[in-house]
Amino acid sequence: MHELTLCEALLDILDDEKRRRGFARLKRIKLEIGRFSCVDADALTYAFEITTRGTWLDGVTVDVDRPPGFVECLDCGAKAQVDDRLAACPQCHGQRLQPIGGDEMKIVEIEILH
After folding, report:
1. Number of separate domains in the chain
2. What residues have CB less than 8 Å from 8, skipping those under 6 apart?
């Protein structure tokens, strides 16, 4: 379950932000996890809930957006947005697609409680 490792890295980032900005609590964190990222958003959210119990992050709401992936067709050169890595090219229906985006995981927003 690599989501637990990702969660631990996320907690380190949030701890650093807390020290840097000097806030006491968070209300919400918004993540963007691309559909090509191979990250199970539900497993990551669950890992966050479990690992933050009894800490300063206990009770923080985690919102996850799942943007689509972007590909370039190696047959016709078209660039397109697709929801599935196994999708066919929307232009030529070729199957040789190179992912060019949608595999990111990033913190988009944090909502701080004062």
Report:
1. 1
2. 51
> Which pairs with CB-CB distance under 8 Å and at least 24 residues apart come from 79-86?
83/35, 84/35, 85/36
Structure confidence by residue, pLDDT tens digits, 26-74: 999 999 999 999 899 999 999 999 999 999 999 999 999 999 999 999 9
Element (H, E) at 28: strand 25-33
Domain span holding position 84: 2-113
CATH number of the domain residue 42 falls in: 3.30.2320.80
pTM over 0.90: no
Contacting residues for 93 by C-beta, under 8 A, at least 6 apart: none
Beta-sheet strand order (sheet of 69-73): 79-82, 69-73, 97-101
